[in-house]
Amino acid sequence: MCGIAGIVHFDGAPADPEAARAMARCLAHRGPDQEGVYASGNVALSFRRLSIIDLSDNASQPMASADRTHWLVFNGEIYNYVELMSELQSRGRRFRSRSDTEVILHAYEESGLECTTRFNGMWAFALWDARERRLILSRDRLGKKPLYYSFDGKTLLFASEVKALLRIRPDLAEPALDQLAGFLVRGETDVRPETFFRNVFQVPPAHTVVFEADGSARWQAYWRAPEPAEVAPIPRDRALSTFRELLYDSVRLRLRSDVPVGTALSGGLDSSSIVAVECDLLKGAPVHTFSSIFAQPELSEERFISAVNAAFPTVPHRITPSSDLGEVLPRVLWHQEVPLVGPGVYSQWCVMELARGKVKVLLDGQGGDELLGGYSYYYPEYLADLLRSAVWPPTLGRLLLTLARIARWASPGRAARLLKEAIRRVAGYPLPVSFSGNFREYLNPDLVGALVQPAEPRGSSRESFLATALLLDTTRLSLPRLLHYEDRNSMAHGIEARAPLLDYRLVEFCLRLPPSLRIEMGVTKALLRRAVGDRLPEIVRNRRDKKGFSEPVGEWMRGKGYPATAALLLSERARVRGIIRRDRIERALAEHRAGINRTVPLYRALTLELWFRLFADGEGLSRFPPASDSPGAGAP
């Protein structure tokens, strides 16, 4: 897990190694252990290392092939590197290290661009092919690892984070107002190749981009997620055994490390299941768990976390985050490089901060909700599927039982509202406003027309409303945003975050499952509960609520943080930007302080203004300067 950056002049101009080194030093938090630079002619590659696999200098980067015609900088982990290395050795390949980095080099020499189809892992890499005079940028299937670039036809700059590009090209901080408008209204982050910076782009997930010697570029998709039309019936027993086998193997692969591994434990079903599987595989060896616990009872997951730690041989670590979010929020934004959709990022930040210095790798449960229908807002899609086929007595029975269960778990009124939403989906009516609230009323009318085309509406598939919703959230909406947050939060503290539930084999398997195996008679994530439930405390196995990463942002903005929030949102600079309607923000501030919850729109607007100040206004590099020249220097 590392930070990568580089410069290629396709017009033949010499690349400045010091510029590449300066880019890498902006990424020192991603790789505090070592620095490396390769420069030759028109190419300069730079690297910051977080040592995880093969801690020796043999695994240092930039890494060259045996004949020094291929040079690689790589961020991520190829979890099946042991198997691939053995296979490549059987074909006569000789290795100087035990690293997955060298596996990528040999795999490319064996299979060319098709090598990525063999990798099980998360990655962003840049490979300079000196023989062909081309640079290859590649990103993993789900986009766990970031890779940004700017290209004007002559000069290509690339890096793990945008701030490294801005270090040598401050002009690239120009905001992309159309992308920002989409964020404000729909909460979209990392949905498209375009970013919030006008001339900065990202390699899309599951893509390789090749920049040829003549300056041309071509994109190649090497994987796609299964479509709803590929959903196929499967006996529940076989689905259960396959899912369990894939889950255990995924965790097994992600325990490969030459440094200590821990687990982020939120108390939810997903992270608790990871702890259970991990303890089974480690056969009693203690597992270090890291949790964030707020003092507010309505936000606290303490009883669930304590139950899991009591049930397994764990070494618990806990943190109670500071209530003064204002002190840390600019630093969080500086690492995230995007405004925030809503609360939740700070709690995860605190978990990563807690783990720093104790472990270098954290497993977590990211992805289970999107793959297996873990959010309550999937109920209308699930009910719509049942409604559409309710002419069959068994389906009608499932529909009635599901509604009865929801009425018992929540309330009869809640069940009635969900059924009404399901009927609207089947009838083809527009969907109601999402949980994020309708931000159009906060947006300057001149920007509404700049909105980019939204993602497909939830539940548009003829095959299955639920399958469509889960595919969209996995590949375009919820999960890309959460993976962005997780990467930046973990790497800000020199931590590698691994997500066993997002092994591509599990993703493909789950996206092909019938909806009835994901939500069963109203029980969310039914397959995971059956696969691991007997290993979990009953309080966790049977919990129906879902807090996720929460934090008392609304309380903070109503109380201690109100003066700073109001000062930023009503400042002259915010008014001159002309993005947010001042009258609407003034009303929202007054309503929120009076007890009407306006947390999401206010937090979104607040982090947008902070983002402008840190990046567009250029305050970030002076406020959080790059690390010192020392290879071991930490992050800002």
Name a few traits of the molecule:
636 residues, alpha+beta, Glutamine Phosphoribosylpyrophosphate, subunit 1, domain 1, Rossmann fold, 3 domains, 6-stranded antiparallel beta sheet, 14% strand, disordered C terminus
How large is the radius of gyration?
A: 24 Å
Low-confidence stretches: 630-636
Percent of residues in helices: 40-55%
CA-CA gap between termini: 18 Å
Secondary structure topology:
Blueprint lengths: L1 E8 L7 H9 L8 E7 L2 E7 L13 E2 L5 E9 L2 H10 L9 H12 L9 E9 L4 E6 L8 E4 L3 E5 L2 H7 L8 H10 L14 E2 L4 E5 L5 E5 L14 H19 L6 E4 L4 H14 L4 E6 L9 H10 L2 E6 L5 H12 L8 H11 L5 E3 L4 H5 L6 H10 L4 H17 L2 H16 L17 H4 L16 H11 L2 H14 L4 E3 L5 H8 L14 H7 L5 H4 L11 H6 L3 H8 L2 H6 L4 H12 L5 H18 L3 H4 L13
Helix pairs in contact: 1-4, 2-3, 6-7, 6-18, 6-19, 9-25, 10-17, 12-14, 12-16, 13-14
Structure notes:
- By secondary structure, the protein is an alpha+beta fold.
- The protein has three domains: 2-221, 4-Layer Sandwich (Glutamine Phosphoribosylpyrophosphate, subunit 1, domain 1), CATH 3.60.20; 225-551, HUPs (Rossmann fold), CATH 3.40.50.620; 553-623, no CATH class.
- The strands form three sheets. It has a six-stranded antiparallel beta sheet with strand order 2-3-1-9-8-10, with helices on one face.
- The longest helix has 19 residues, at 236-254.
